[in-house]
C-alpha cells in the first residue's frame, strides 16, 4: 500500500487528481531522501533540472524526461530544482 510521502523542506507535493490512481505535483528545491513503499512510481519532469540517485547510481533529470522507479526500489534521493508529475501503483 502506498502512503503519501511527507516532504520536509526543500520540497512539497500537491495532489492534483484523485481517481483510481492519484496524481501528484512534486516541487523539488534542494535535496530529499525518500523511502518507496509503492509498487512503482511513474515520473514526468515538467520544469527545471536535477538528479535522481538510486542504488548508488546517479541519473540527470530535466524538463521533458520521463522515468519509472520499478518494483524493488526501496529508497531514492532527489536533488535539484525541478517540478514533477508523479503517479504510483
Characterise the protein shown here.
The chain has one domain (11-88): Jelly Rolls. It is built from no helices and six strands. It is mainly beta. It has strands at 11-17, 23-35, 41-54, 57-62, 66-69, 75-88. Residues 6-10 have low confidence and may be disordered. It is globular.
List the helices and strands and how they pair.
Elements: E1 11-17, E2 23-35, E3 41-54, E4 57-62, E5 66-69, E6 75-88
Antiparallel strand pairs: 1-2, 2-6, 3-4, 3-5, 3-6
Organism: Tigheibacillus jepli
Protein name: Phosphohexomutase
InterPro entries: MPI_cupin_dom, RmlC-like_jellyroll, RmlC_Cupin_sf
The CATH homologous superfamily name equals Jelly Rolls
The H/E string reads EEEEEE
Given helix and strand content, the structural type is mainly beta
Unreliable spans: 6-10
Strand residues, percent: over 45%
Outline the biggest β-sheet: 6 strands, antiparallel
- What integer value in Å does the Rg equal? 12 Å
| Straight-line N-to-C gap | 9 Å
Number of helices: 0
Average pLDDT rating: 84
CATH overall fold name: Jelly Rolls
- Provide the CATH architecture: Sandwich
- Helix content range: under 10%
Assembly classification: single chain
What is the CATH C-level name?
Answer: Mainly Beta
Shape: globular
| Annotation, overall tally of beta strands | 6
Number of domains: 1
Amino acid at each position: 500500500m502506498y502512503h503519501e510521502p511527507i516532504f520536509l523542506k526543500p520540497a512539497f507535493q500537491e495532489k492534483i487528481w484523485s481517481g483510481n490512481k492519484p496524481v501528484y505535483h512534486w516541487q523539488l528545491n534542494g535535496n530529499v531522501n525518500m523511502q518507496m513503499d509503492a509498487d512503482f512510481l511513474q515520473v514526468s519532469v515538467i520544469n527545471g533540472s536535477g538528479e535522481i540517485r538510486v542504488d548508488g547510481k546517479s541519473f540527470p533529470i530535466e524538463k521533458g524526461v520521463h522515468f519509472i522507479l520499478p518494483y524493488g526500489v526501496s529508497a531514492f534521493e532527489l536533488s535539484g530544482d525541478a517540478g514533477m508529475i508523479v503517479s504510483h501503483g
